[in-house]
Amino acid sequence: MFANRPRPTEADVLQALKGVQDPDLHRDLVDLGMIKDIRIHDRTISLTVNLTTPACPLKGKIEADVRNALTSRLGADFHYQIHMAAEVRGKGITEKGDIPGVKNVIAVGSGKGGVGKSTMAAAIAYGLHAHGATVGLMDADVYGPSIPHLVGAGGRPMARGDRIQPIERDGLRLMSMGFLLEPERAVVMRGPMLHGIVQQFLHQVDWGTLDYLVIDLPPGTGDVPLTLAQTLPLTGAVIVCTPQEVALLDATRALSMFRQLKVPILGMIENMSGFDVAAYLAEHGSPAARQLAASGRLFDDPADALVPIFGTGGARRTAERLGVPFLGEIPLNVSLRERGDQGRLASAFSPDSPSRAPLMAMVEALAAQISIQNLKARKMPKLEIIG
Fold first, then answer.
1. Could you report the per-residue pLDDT of 357-367, keeping only the tens digit for each?
2. Which domains, and CATH codes, for the chain?
């Protein structure tokens, strides 16, 4: 029966995949140009699905949908080889102020200090890098540069020609005022000087080719966010807050600031959403407590393992009320704090880290929102009527 069946063509394969959508973008994979390298040989059909981000949270579902569509429309007689790849896309248009070679610029801000904004900015950078993306991390918190300490990076940036070379650590390209100051020296400067520093970090640093540049902003609604919004087109902003009401009030003001500056809101992160008792006992408890925690029998209900010191769910409710995406809850975890204090924040994504799962879920949700925003930002070509 198979011998009498005509071999499918590349057009047949594409037609079979019409209607298979990216679950986040809600667009057809074929229309989005994600189907690549179709090869047909005897009973084998191979192709590549080129996703818009390597951190796609629904990669498995997309692969299954593609395989099911091919099998149902071309038949089960073929062996289907589906390769999942990714090519990070930008907004698809060039605008004044863009950094050459940088596809996406993400600002991470907060309404107030002490909510773990810098830790989340570094975690976003490391999480995207863990998925295979090329990532830069710029510390724009000029008055309190903490990124060098969190990631364990030091040294002074060198110049090559008229370009500043970023410091590299654990696969990230880094720039911070902390690399230019003596330890414990205070930064004393007014708005115009801040503007100049930010401009230099953006446009005189040799960032190279980056899928994502993550920028850690100072807390509040001061000069630096304004400079960023006026200097270059941001892909979007992420707001970090804790669940308590006073933090949410300030976070709402930060979100309002970005909206006034016409910066898209990629989402909100709730940090310190509950103290992770099980993870603490597993790493710091007595031998008996560690054994009990490892057994999974410490709590009848897993939700009881999180003690809501600052409350819980506040950021989710605020995001829903304001109509912005909610990117996830990150528990208050001693291990994450220790790794940051020791300059080993990259290890928060190691397999043994209790913070890996919630951090990775947050990063994947953010990557999806970046792809959605870039699709919204694409402009249709102008049509000229000739006649």
1. 999 999 999 99
2. 2-86 (3.30.300.130), 105-377 (3.40.50.300)
